[in-house]
Amino acid sequence: MKRLIALLLVLFVAATAAGYVAYTALARASLAEASKGKVPDTTGPDKGAGPIGDSGPTSGSGAAGLNVQKIETVTLETAPAVIQDWVRNSLPSKFAGYRTVGKDLYLLVTAGPQPTTGYGVTLVSAGESNGRLEVVVRFTSPAKGTAQGQVITYPYALAKVPASTAFKTVEFVEEKPR
């Protein structure tokens, strides 16, 4: 039994190290470079929209030319159980995706594990045009020189918009710094 526990511990440590190396390599690539443009809807119940693209000029109320959609922030505690599980399973990696539950389209963006407190993810705006829902995302980091808690955090943003059969694609774009 002790050998089995030791073997499982070694396998866990090796898998964790491999995942950290893969995450570190992904984190070094900019989101815009990784995406090479916006990625349309994928199939399946867990609609991962792929890498996050680069937004171009935006304002706080949505990108130019888009009909602004109201984003309602959702807490993990108030989300349906299937969404709670989806969020928990998505936290260990960088992820942008959506799921429809009932009359709501849930939007999720995760930043993956971060080394300290002070990191964040915000869904800034959502706008619809010609069957495309564009979701603008803001990633934040702690200010240089500020004291931060030395604990691994998993920043994420979860929100919902009314589901619409008019949405043929959902695209996540990173807000450009002002």
Question: What are the main properties of this structure?
Answer:
single chain; 178 residues; alpha+beta; 5-stranded antiparallel β-sheet; 5-stranded mixed β-sheet; 3 helices; 12 strands; 24% helix; 34% strand
Secondary-structure topology with pairs:
Blueprint: H1 2-28, H2 31-35, E1 47-48, E2 53-54, E3 58-59, E4 62-63, E5 67-69, E6 72-73, H3 81-90, E7 94-101, E8 104-111, E9 120-129, E10 132-140, E11 156-162, E12 169-174
Parallel strand pairs: 2-12, 10-12
Antiparallel strand pairs: 1-7, 3-4, 5-9, 6-11, 7-8, 8-11, 9-10
Summarize the structure.
The protein is an alpha+beta fold. The chain has 3 helices and 12 strands, in the order ααββββββαββββββ.
Structural class: alpha+beta
Work out the strand percent.
Answer: 25-35%
Biggest β-sheet strands, sense, barrel:
5 strands, antiparallel
Order of helices and strands: HHEEEEEEHEEEEEE
